[in-house]
Amino acid sequence: MTTADAAPEAGRDFIRDIVQSDLDTGKHRSIVTRFPPEPNGYLHIGHAKSIALNFGVAKEFGGRCNLRFDDTNPTKEEQEYIDSIQADVHWLGYDWGGNLFYASDYFEQLYAWAELMIRNGDAYVDDQSQDEIRSTRGTLTEPGKNSPFRDRTVEENLDLFRRMRAGEFPNGARVLRARIDMAAGNINLRDPVLYRILHAHHPRTGDKWSIYPSYDYAHGQSDAIEGVTHSICTLEFEDHRPLYEWLLSKLPVPSQPKQYEFARLNITYTLLSKRVLTELVRGGHVSGWDDPRMPTIAGLKRRGVPPAAIRDFVRRIGVAKANSVVDLGMLEFCIREELNRIAQRRMAVLRPLKVVIENYPEGQTEELEAINHPDDPSAGTRKISFGREIYIEQDDFMENPPKKFFRLSPGNEVRLRYAYFIKCREVIKNDKGEIVELRCTYDPETRGGNAPDGRKVKATMHWLPAAQSVKAEIRIYNQLFTNPAPEASNFAADLNPQSLEVLSDARIEPEVATSLSTDPLQFERQGYFVRDRDSTPGKPVFNRTIGLRDTFAKEVAKG
Ligand code: ATP
Ligand code: MG
Predict the structure, then answer these.
(1) Mean pLDDT, all residues of the chain
(2) In this structure, what CATH number is given to the domain that contains residue 72?
(3) What is the pTM of this model?
């Protein structure tokens, strides 16, 4: 089994250096991290970076990592997302043990602290509308304006806040704001909203609450309640850190977490924004959150990407403090490396062309031996039937080949993998002039793929027997976006109309068709494939995870 334990040791980075130093100096005796997803969508490969960092650091330094759902926005959050996030973290190879928490577990405590802030003059109820609050916030160069409600008495604030909680006011009528400084250079400190009125059903607290804490208010205090020592988040929260620290300084919290920011993962040809991913699903641009073209963990899994490849990828890209964009080729490299290691080899013909071997006796078949993994003898061998009628790949034949085409063409001899040398004698076409069949001859002396007279052929081709192969649907995926830097604000314009190609006449080996295994397979010379959950007993469906590198494909073709 490959688990996170088996992954090569993670490199050092500034976060690990900080943790090491905090342990060395005795600042902490043990460390606590957390992965804090908002359950408003499925996890994507960017989250995998954060998961690997938080769980990885905890494990390497003998600490613990909590899984905490930041469930403070009930209008966008669903149980389906909570379930999928847990499944995906486990699938990636990480485990929170008993440390599963929800920000909603702390709603009572957070509320009590909000009342305390009111009593201490650190918070007030503002009756301004959202628009008014936004427009009086100022800009980077101009200070904001104090709210006319900023100097309410403690009694009035407490009364209004309690009535907000009791559900007396409609959505948006009032908010609770921190009372910091409307002229602060950092806009996040200009009296940020701590609570808003929201008459919404919450997946966990039901209809108990009519007010919900803001992310900024809930997050740091949740960390403090859980004893998180290193609160690791992405760079966009850097400007929120002063607020995070201000709140911790004002409240009798049980611990003082420190926030550290790292660069989020960006990948070429990929959008990693939950808003965009949600729109792709809702707009029907993909079949669902686990569509194999999605950069979600569920999509990558369904596509056949092994979790070890994702862990290897995030280990290789490392953790830095400057934003950058990683080449999609890097992820593909990690996927190929892992699949090459673990995937057994099979033969499949994606676009079949029938070949009749005229000098092979009618009604005869024989069994040939095929190797399951060239680098792993323990994977064993299997038998493949050979007969008079077989299929080869359409593009392995050319009637009028250019100079460097070494595969099958009239008069040219090639090797059928594990079988015989064949030569094409005649090309049969339909009324439209399309090639529908080849008439070939084989050399019975070349059984197993070698000629006793030592003559060589320049190509080895995969094939399947016509009678003993099974029809399958094969789905070929290409990049979802044509633009290396797709625009989040107008992503539809960058969608690749050819991101999915369905081959419905492909042929696969019979055991591949009947096996329910979702282990990855290499279909020789074609790439890596995995059985899709859309398969039925009568119609197997396979996803192409990724093609083989061109150079690699050429090497195999040469034989
Ligand atoms: P989005 O911005 O797409 O809505 P999010 O950051 O709001 O995503 P959360 O559920 O809040 O999604 O994320 C949980 C954790 O994952 C956060 O700590 C966040 O910083 C981290 N994370 C999200 N996206 C990335 C990314 N692309 N690279 C690294 N970490 C990420
Ligand atoms: Mg977020």
Answers:
(1) 95
(2) 3.40.50.620
(3) 0.94
